[in-house]
Every structure is written in structure tokens, then in C-alpha cells.
Amino acid sequence: MKDNQIDSTEDVARVLFYPSFFSGGDSPLYSDGVLSPTAFKLQILKSGTPESSISVLRTILESFTHDLAKLSPRSSTDYKCGYALLNVGQIRSIILSFLKQR
Fold it and tell me: Please, which residues bridge with residue 11 across strands?
């Protein structure tokens, strides 16, 4: 494993913003529990540059809660409502599976 590579057993967190990342309902608690694919969609930045990855936070770092608190939504109509825990190994298996299908 490379020095900068995250171990496959580690979890990372994707911060969730409402309403942009949810489908239906008038709050994340009442959105029928449906997290929209937009929570993981690559965007075109204001500069016109397309994203090449999504932002995640490493939950094992001491600064996790501080980093989580610092994040703010891109849209003025959104608010932070939580985060999704994702396992690095599972993410890698999805990517590899996708690449093999191409």
C-alpha cells in the first residue's frame, strides 16, 4: 500500500446537504429516507472546471468533527443535515466492478 493510500477497512464520510441531496419531503427526516444520487454526482464548478472526485472526510482523523463543522453548502438554500459513512473497500470494489464492465 502506498503511504498516501487509505486502507480498505477505513470509513470515510460524505457530508449531506438538504434539499439538494434528497428526494421528496419537506425535510431530510420526511424525505422518505431517499438519498438522491446527486449526493455523489460530480459537478461543474463555478470556474467551469468539472470535478474529478467528490469530497469526503476521514473519520479516523482527530480533526474529523472540526472539519465537519467547517463545511458549508454551495447553495444558500441548502443546510448541512448529516453525513453518510462509506467504506473505502466497498467504494473501491464498486469502481473496479464498473471499470471491468466497460
Answer: 87
3-state SS, the chain, equals CCCCCCCCCCEEEEEEEECCCECCCCCHHHCCCCECHHHHCCCECCCCCECCCCCCEECCCCCHHHHHHHCCCCCCCCEEEEEEEEEHHHHHHHHHHHHHHC
pLDDT digits (tens, 9 = 90+) for 39-56: 888 888 889 998 888 889
| The model's pTM | 0.75
Is the four-CA dihedral 25, 28, 29, 34 of positive or negative sign? positive
Return the C-alpha torsion angle 49, 52, 58, 78, nearest 10. Answer: 50
Grid cell of 58 as nine digits: 476521514
Closest residue by Cα to residue 53 from 8, 95, 101:
95
Write the single-letter amino acid at 11: D
CA 52, CA 11: separation in Å to the nearest integer? 20
